[in-house]
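Pipeline run #58 for the internal structure catalog. This entry was flagged by the ingest filter as a single-chain record with no existing model, so it goes straight to prediction. Upstream metadata was stripped on purpose; only the residue string is passed forward. Reviewer on rotation: M.T. Logging verbosity set to normal.
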Amino acid sequence: MHDQAETTSNPTEAAAPAPDFDSPWKEAMDAWFQPFMALFFPAVHDLIDWTRPHEFLDAELQRLTGDSEIGRRTADRLVRVYSREGQELWLLLHIEIQGRADAAFPERMFQYWYRIYDRYRGVEILSLALLTNDRAPVGGGVYRRKRDGYGVSFRFRVHALPDWDQAELGTRAASNPFAVVALAQLAAHRRGTDPERKARKRELIEMLYRFQYDRAEILKLLRFIDWLIRLPRVLEQALRQELIESEEGRKMPYVTSWEQFAREEGLQQGEARALLRLIQGKFGPPAPDLTARVERAELPELEIWLDRILTAATPDEVFDPRRTETNRDG
């Protein structure tokens, strides 16, 4: 499957949002950005010098687009990379997680591109979109505004996850962790009974062992799969017990990943709840975006924030002390 360049967009109605799919995708992109690009946008991936570090510019994207817009789309990313020739490139990525692309999607892509261009004219911007629950429309990926033959025509690359053959994704998963992410997203969107969803979840988890991912990646992927494919408590407990027994039978060379994941998940949830209670008691009810940030944070980060809140005078001193120091210096 190859990325589709210059494809047109038919407006489709937005589907009902699924619960918090954006946060795990953002986390997965942070962990596996190069595999993400290799899987979905291989032509752009091959332009990039991966020996140089990439940088997420999400704060800059927020400033340029406005909190009210980007806050609802936490999987929109702005990434600084460098081409093989040494040229700075900015990748504007829109990941439509929650359902079908809405009618405003192409216009939003154009607005984001233009705002970045207007502020940073010397930077080349590549606009890329991934639809996770919608097929790429015939011709898709274009925003047009014209009258009497004059106006604007803006094209961007679109890739649609449902256009993939699942067997091919399964093959890619042997060497690309983002193929596991893609399979988990497709499984989360598929309808089925709870036992069918349990079977899909188990199949995905066993894939991690079959392809011999390392322990750290297994834990990250377990977190992603568990976040997307929720089961009733009884089935979840049954699945975990099956997996623990299965892993012990394989005589894995480390303590069972699933047990550790379950233990860390419980600690993470407990510390997140504790931090949110402290924030409310000290600073008042936290904003929705702050709550989401706390809930998706991992244990080491939560522990740092819990230490900081003891002496913090403002939320910034908990979450972004460098910005607070800059403001004081100014």
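catalog note: The beta strands are 55-56, 77-82, 88-96, 124-131, 142-147, 150-155, 157-160.
catalog note: The two ends are 51 Å apart (CA to CA).
status: ready for reviewer M.T.
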